[in-house]
Design brief:
192 residues; 8-stranded parallel beta sheet; 5-stranded parallel beta sheet; mainly beta; single chain; 48% strand
Length: 192
């Protein structure tokens, strides 16, 4: 299930609870960042926090402020030349960089809620928005996801893409993803 916060101020006295399965709490960078949400305790039972637009430079959020949340999705990457930070991520959880990663090429810094272990893992998904032109040629959208990940010994990377429109019987265009990774603790890197 997905719940989108439209206006944090309007929900100051609300109580919002996720359901069964994986639940996502979504909103914009403006609402999650800055003054943002001052009462995260009203949102319970969610697993993933998703920012639906591009993360601006100096954006920072601790997902563990939201009860149950341990995964994060940057829905449209990080602004070019910018650096955004997500902390409080859980061991064994998932961080996704999605959207127009060919344009939004900034760096996402990721830290765990508890990095004291020696066998911490993280799933990292690169999901590039493919510029689908629905012709007879297989075109490639090339993108680089740049990430600095701390405290993770095993990183499981999934590289994929999502077309921006249905090719409607034409050749499906593809994504070519590159991961520019900084991770001093890395022992094992798995790529699929």
């Amino acid at each position: 299930d997905n719940y989108t916060i439209g206006d944090a101020a309007d929900e100051a006295t609300a109580s919002v609870e996720g359901g069964d399965g994986e639940d996502t709490l979504s909103s914009t960078a403006a609402i999650f960042g800055g003054a943002g949400i001052t009462n995260p305790e009203i949102y319970t039972g969610f697993d993933v926090l998703a920012v639906t637009d591009v993360l601006p430079d100096l954006f920072a959020i601790d997902v563990s402020d939201f009860d149950g949340v341990d995964s994060f999705k940057a829905g449209n990457g990080v602004a070019a030349l910018g650096t955004a930070t997500v902390s409080g991520v859980g061991n064994g959880s998932t961080v996704t960089m999605a959207g127009d990663l060919a344009t939004n090429t900034g760096t996402l810094e990721v830290t765990l809620a508890d990095a004291s272990g020696s066998s911490d893992s993280l799933d990292f998904i690169i999901d590039t928005l493919i510029d689908e032109n629905s012709d007879a040629v297989v075109d490639t959208t090339a993108a680089t996801a740049t990430a600095t990940i701390s405290g993770v010994e095993t990183l499981n990377v999934e590289s994929t893409g999502t077309p921006d429109e249905d090719p409607a019987g034409a050749e499906m265009d593809i994504a070519s993803n590159t991961l520019a990774l900084t991770n001093d603790e890395l022992v094992t890197l798995n790529i699929s």
